[in-house]
Amino acid sequence: MTIFNRRTILKGVGVSFVLPFLESLIIEKAHASSPPIRTAFIFVPNGINMNHWTPSDSFEFEGILEPISNLKNKINVISGLAQYNAHALGDGGGDHARSASTWLTGVHPRKTSGSNIKAGISFDQILANHFRNTSRFPSLEIGCERGGLSGDCDSGYSCAYSNSISWKTESTPVAKETDPKLAFDRLFQTGNKDEDESTKLERIESDKSILDYVLADAKRLSLRLGKTDRVKLDEYMTGVREIENRIKLFSKGFNENHEINNFKNLDKTPRDYQEHIRLMGDLMILAFQTDTTRVSTFMFANEGSNRAYKMIGVNDGHHELSHHQKNVEKLDALKKINTFHTSQLSYILNKMNSIQEGERTLLENSMIVYGAGICDGDRHNHDDLPILLAGNCGGKIKTGKHIITKKSTPMNNLFLSMADKLNISLEKFGDSSGKLHEIV
After folding, report:
1. Are 281 and 341 in contact (CB under 8 A)?
2. Exposure string (b/e) for 281-292, b if CB count within 10 Å is 16 or more?
3. Rounded Cα gap, residues 51 and 69, in angstroms
4. Three-point CA angle 374, 370, 189, nearest 5°
5. How far apart are CA 399 and CA 349, in angstroms?
6. Contact status, residue 411 vs residue 80, Cβ threshold 8 Å
7. How many Å apart are CA 188 and CA 181, to the nearest integer?
8. Which residues make Cβ contacts (< 8 Å) with residue 279, sequence separation at least 6?
9. Is 223 exposed, middle or buried (0-12, 13-18, 19+ CB in 10 A)?
10. What pTM did the predictor assign?
11. How many H helices and E strands in the chain?
């Protein structure tokens, strides 16, 4: 059992089980410092039905924002932001590809479907580099739609531009993980490849839980904990087991024998899209809660996605519907899709808000950016983007406001402001023109 970066790590063969901060284990004043700030960037494709997005003058959340209305005092909705470099700028079609690749980079991507792709280092990776030595993983990139990083996906633009919002370098997009099992294993592996593979095989054959490998260590730890922390430890481990069992359950659709008692056949993503989003969201929260990482990107779907949402009564493809031409029925279907997405956001934010960290919650100790790189999918415009910022950065940001910026204010100004709150010196990013005084 070891103390690392304010966290306790339970050790088992092939398993490194990181726990959330437990007050009973404070052994010196350094461990009583404020919880770290986490940042996440959650992306949705194809724009938003803006007629049902903007909050009322009294900051009431209706329409698309209604599912997160209970958290409105911990959210700022920001209107007027733009990513200028997502516009064509002489390159013709390809707004979907540009919208995703520019969203966190602020850089106009090179139009190519070959290997000579070029955008810019994304803001999440700037943060990841800054926190590289403070967490086990600098960043976590996840999503719910597979997609290659080669080939032509949008009017001569490489699929890399549409399928990734995180860029490690100007020519290296970061591939996201869409498989819940692989993401789960990554969070709990020891880093010893041979040992990890051996443990995985044993788990498959014996149907063991990852918790089975750390129970002895957990029992020894429990003797050192106060009553409150013992309950907290039990709740946490129960939560991990629940996620593990849900991952097994949602592999059922891909097992021709309909067996759900092991991970052997989980080589695809769950068919239930809502549960897929929530599973990946739970894993992101787990990584934040244990300080395994402080930075994450999450693509609910790839840009230009034409997924149908039959579970909410929308049988046509999302991308096709986004070209609504003001058709009332298509706009109503878009509203349903947009509301479905914010319902999943609500699940994630409310869970984060239920996790107490000293005087604040995990949500309050975070900055969560949610939104799209296109405003209206029919116009393919990249100004007045639908953006909200949840969490108040450990009390450093006043929330519960509709911030209306000057028209076409660079979205990169928001990133400068977030860097400022994290005490990161960043004078310029993309086409930034300064910080948002409403946040700073």
Report:
1. no
2. bbbbbbbbbbbb
3. 17
4. 120
5. 14
6. no
7. 11
8. 180, 243, 246, 247, 250, 270
9. exposed
10. 0.93
11. 11, 18
C-beta of residue 107 within 8 angstroms of C-beta of residue 85: yes
H or E stretch covering 236: helix 227-249
Domains delineated in the chain: 1-33+182-268 (no CATH), 34-178+271-440 (3.40.720.10)
**Full pLDDT tens readout for the chain, 440 residues:** 333 344 567 767 678 888 887 777 654 444 446 789 999 999 999 999 999 999 999 999 999 999 999 999 999 999 999 999 999 999 999 999 999 999 999 999 999 999 999 999 999 999 999 999 999 999 999 999 998 888 999 999 999 999 999 999 999 999 999 999 999 989 988 767 766 677 767 766 677 888 888 888 888 888 888 888 888 889 899 999 999 999 988 766 543 333 433 434 334 445 799 999 999 999 999 999 999 999 999 999 999 999 999 999 999 999 999 999 999 999 999 999 999 999 999 999 999 999 988 889 999 999 999 999 999 999 999 999 999 999 999 999 999 999 999 999 999 999 999 999 999 999 999 999 999 998 87
The dihedral built from the CA positions of residue 335, 350, 287 and 206, taken in this order, carries a sign that is negative
> What phi and psi values does residue 104 have, to the nearest 5 degrees?
-110, -5
Q: Shortest CA distance to 183 belongs to which of 132, 138, 257, 247?
A: 247
Q: Which H or E run includes 336? A: helix 328-353
Hey, what are 284's tokens?
Answer: 């992101």
Answer for the pair 408, 85: CB distance below 8 angstroms, yes or no: no
Tokens of 440: 């700073």
How many other CB atoms are found less than 10 A from the CB of residue 47? 29
Q: Which residue has the tokens 């403070």?
A: 134
Phi, psi of 436 (to 5 degrees): -80, 110
Alpha-carbon span 429 to 433, nearest angstrom: 9
pLDDT of residue 198: 74
Distance CA 254, CA 271 (A): 9
Sequence length of the chain is: 440
Asked if residue 335 lies in contact with residue 344, where contact means CB atoms within 8 angstroms, the answer is: no
Contacts of 241 (CB under 8 A, 6+ apart): 209, 211
Q: 238 CB contacts (<8 Å, ≥6 apart)? A: none
Distance separating alpha carbons of residues 145 and 261, to the nearest angstrom: 25
pLDDT at res. 196 = 65
Q: Position 152: which residue type?
A: D
Within 8 A by CB and 6+ apart from 4, the residues are none
CA separation for the pair 284, 289 (Å, rounded): 9
